Amino acid sequence: MKIATFNINGVKARINALSDWLKEASPDVALLQEIKSVDEAFPRDVFEDLGYNVYTHGQKGFNGVAIFSKLPLEDVTHGLPGDDSDEQARWIEATVVGEKAIRVCGLYLPNGNPVELTEDGQPVEGGKYAYKLAWMERLYKRAQELLASEEPALMAGDYNIIPQAEDAAKPDGWREDALFRPESRAAWRKIQNLGFTEAFRSRNQNPEQYSFWDYQAGAWNKNNGIRIDHFLMTPQCADLMEDCQIDKDIRGREKPSDHVPVWVKLNA
Question: What percent of the chain is predicted at pLDDT more than 70?
């Protein structure tokens, strides 16, 4: 089973690019972020014609997540538990029914910028950075539940987290950014240290491995990137992993997203 995550940065703007990649890469499951479309207006017919079951959790103009699956899906749920007042469309999960059942969670973690801090260094209540860290605390609780189920499960998507300095071409330029601040990385490690495997780094320790390049300042041509799209896998899921790779070349195509797909292959 091949499962991919891809922040598409607007499905309508990238409909041809996304279709071409799906035809070439042929993932069994694709978890998408930043679809930037309400559910009613999502161009599902295009992707259903490619053989995918399409489930979306959309929002007008920004955010939005989706699951495409060639395999049957069960128990599709929308929204990260823990805050009924949160209206941002950032979480979708379902059970993929293959040879083995896999619980897949697609997420678009808040960016968190600008970082607003009080005089004593605490995130300003109601600010974007406080929202990011609160969202990650809810993610931590959902992660605990997934582990407790003792079933193969993964959480994949745009985490907006640079885990380590080697995951940025110029880490010093990110020191005060919400993606790389110590509080953000501590929240990431808190989740990972529950017992999750970070799929890509478990397979590839090489430097200069990125999944995002800004549209500005020739970042792509200079390989001035960061790695912020990740898979976290429960032990039962990690035991099934055969490979994890980044489809870097997609970034050099016409009208690309600023992210590229990351995928895992499971023996499932």
Answer: 100
- Flag whether the pTM goes above 0.90: yes
Answer for the pair 25, 264: CB distance below 8 angstroms, yes or no. Answer: no
> Which of 73, 105, 83, 102 minimizes the C-alpha distance to 92?
105
Domains parsed from the chain with CATH numbers:
2-266 (3.60.10.10)
Residues forming the active site: 108, 158
Read off the amino acid at residue 150.
E
Distances (CA, A) of 196 to 21, 105, 143: 28, 14, 9
What angle (nearest 5°) sits at the alpha carbon of residue 53, between those of residues 93 and 227? 50
CB distance 229 to 211 below 8 Å: yes
pLDDT digits (tens, 9 = 90+) for 183-203: 999 999 999 999 999 999 999
At 134-149, the pLDDT tens digits run 999 999 999 999 999 9
